[in-house]
TrEMBL record:
<feature type="transmembrane region" description="Helical">
    <location>
        <begin position="238"/>
        <end position="258"/>
    </location>
</feature>
<dbReference type="Pfam" id="PF09594">
    <property type="entry name" value="GT87"/>
</dbReference>
<keyword id="KW-1133">Transmembrane helix</keyword>
<feature type="transmembrane region" description="Helical">
    <location>
        <begin position="415"/>
        <end position="437"/>
    </location>
</feature>
<feature type="transmembrane region" description="Helical">
    <location>
        <begin position="309"/>
        <end position="330"/>
    </location>
</feature>
<keyword id="KW-0812">Transmembrane</keyword>
<dbReference type="InterPro" id="IPR018584">
    <property type="entry name" value="GT87"/>
</dbReference>
<protein>
    <submittedName>
        <fullName>DUF2029 domain-containing protein</fullName>
    </submittedName>
</protein>
<feature type="transmembrane region" description="Helical">
    <location>
        <begin position="156"/>
        <end position="173"/>
    </location>
</feature>
<feature type="transmembrane region" description="Helical">
    <location>
        <begin position="180"/>
        <end position="199"/>
    </location>
</feature>
<dbReference type="GO" id="GO:0005886">
    <property type="term" value="C:plasma membrane"/>
</dbReference>
<feature type="transmembrane region" description="Helical">
    <location>
        <begin position="342"/>
        <end position="373"/>
    </location>
</feature>
<dbReference type="GO" id="GO:0016758">
    <property type="term" value="F:hexosyltransferase activity"/>
</dbReference>
<feature type="transmembrane region" description="Helical">
    <location>
        <begin position="385"/>
        <end position="403"/>
    </location>
</feature>
<comment type="similarity">
    <text>Belongs to the glycosyltransferase 87 family.</text>
</comment>
<keyword id="KW-0472">Membrane</keyword>
<feature type="transmembrane region" description="Helical">
    <location>
        <begin position="131"/>
        <end position="150"/>
    </location>
</feature>
Length: 447
């Protein structure tokens, strides 16, 4: 069964977020103009942020590269068992003391081969230069994320006025700002996921390579590889993604080696079996476990025995949300790919025990699905029109929860549930829209 929206499914309308008449064939998510705009935005972002960052997350990768260059790969995964923000051991202490990095590097938790890649990078440039390049690339990646998310749902290029407005909102949002401030790779990860989902029809090989690489780094996108393998239309991308992800694992087996790879797997298990409690972790698990961290002197206290409610309630929430997504996909067979891929990835991110502020970049995917939903064509669809307009307004009303001051942990107006509520709301709205409303039965004639 074809799991992609039919070409030209959108009605040409002057209403809010209406889509222009469809081209004769679906258009790729990116083009030269969008890339150029992304590069310019990235350079401007890097220039503005220069000297105003504390790239502790990027420093973790940089220090890991230096440790790998020294041949001390057995020391890569040294994390304080009581404080997720602190590393331990004399190798880390000595390397941090003499390295050009931020003042408080975070521990390293990624696949070992990434440390090997970082060791090459430390040969090529200074830490300061690498931060500037990361910031510029992150700015470009945000444009890729926005353009790809729009194209995934519409098969159209994103209108420039929408892209410009979205860029402004993204610039002031806490997820993007925290990514730039900390030197996070999240913009690249979520842009890679969005591009892979949108480009599966046009460039399945490239899409598969991208999805495989980001899956090896962040792991959650691995679910999308399994999903892609289940559909004939996306199976080619799924196979390529599986092979490219396995390539990263095999590379980690060769360099730095089996023991380091085992250390990484052990680290992932320890992280999964505990809860990291901090205001920037807005997961339901962290929120429900926060009373156990009261009085702790740790920067990010680690709770090794969270309450049962903190374990099972997120699982129940995930099950309910996934049931809603499955019903929507059943009701709208032409939209099964975007619904299941966006729904599965968004739910896995939202209901995980870790929901850092910068993970909220994923909200772009369901938000675009809601805002681009076509308006009813029948003049007797006033009830459907009202429901659709209300859903879009509610979706827009959730955006301030991702902006300062509500999303700023240093603000007196900070709202602790501001990470969780927008995602649960967007996933629910997306599912209800595609479950309850009828889409145009056939593509309109292109004008």
């Amino acid at each position: 069964m074809n799991v992609f929206p039919p070409v030209g499914h959108r009605r040409n309308s002057t209403a809010d977020f209406a889509i222009p008449a469809a081209p004769s064939s679906p258009t790729p998510p990116l083009n030269a103009a969008i890339h150029l705009y992304g590069v310019l935005f990235g350079l401007v972002s890097a220039l503005i942020m220069r000297g105003h960052q504390q790239p502790d997350d990027w420093s973790a990768l940089w220090i890991a590269g230096l440790i790998t260059k020294q041949g001390n790969t057995s020391e890569l995964y040294r994390i304080d068992p009581q404080d997720f923000a602190r590393w331990t051991g004399p190798v880390w202490e000595e390397t941090v003391r003499h390295a050009e990095a931020s003042a408080f590097p975070h521990p390293f938790v990624h696949i070992p081969f990434l440390a090997e890649v970082m060791s090459w990078l430390t040969h090529l440039m200074s830490f300061t230069t690498s931060v500037f390049l990361l910031t510029a690339i992150s700015g470009w990646a945000i444009i890729v994320l926005l353009a790809s998310a729009w194209n995934l749902w519409t098969q159209h290029p994103i209108p420039w006025i929408i892209l410009a407005l979205a860029t402004i909102i993204m610039w002031v949002s806490e997820p993007f700002h925290s990514s730039l401030y900390l030197g996070q790779t999240s913009p690249l990860i979520f842009a890679g996921v969005a591009y892979a989902l949108a480009a599966v029809r046009h460039k399945p090989i490239i899409a598969g390579i991208v999805l495989g690489l980001v899956s090896a780094i962040k792991l959650t996108p691995v679910l999308l590889i399994a999903l892609a393998l289940g559909f004939k239309s996306s199976r080619r991308m799924g196979v390529v993604a599986l092979l490219s992800g396995m390539g990263m694992v095999i590379a980690s087996l060769i360099t730095p080696g089996l023991h380091t790879l085992q250390d990484w797997v052990t680290t992932l298990r320890l992280i999964g079996d505990s809860v990291q409690v901090t205001p920037v972790n807005g997961s339901l698990t962290s929120l429900l476990s926060s009373p156990l961290a009261s009085g702790s002197q740790a920067i990010v206290p680690v709770i090794h025995h969270p309450p049962l409610l903190a374990i099972w309630l997120p699982r129940l929430l995930a099950a309910v949300l996934f049931a809603l997504v499955l019903w929507a996909a059943y009701r709208q067979p032409h939209y099964r790919w975007p619904l299941l891929s966006v729904g599965l990835f968004s739910i896995a991110t939202t209901c995980s025990s870790i929901l850092w502020s910068h993970y909220l970049l994923v909200a772009v995917l369901p938000l675009c699905g809601i805002l681009t939903f076509p308006e009813p064509e029948s003049s007797n669809s006033s009830g459907q029109f009202s429901f659709l307009r209300a859903a879009k307004l509610i979706a827009l009303a959730l955006i301030p929860l991702l902006l300062p001051p509500l999303a700023d942990t240093t603000s007196e107006m900070y709202f602790p549930w501001g990470n969780l509520i927008p995602m649960v709301g967007l996933i629910t709205l997306l599912s209800l829209l595609f479950s309850a409303l009828k889409l145009p039965p056939s593509p309109p004639t292109s004008r």
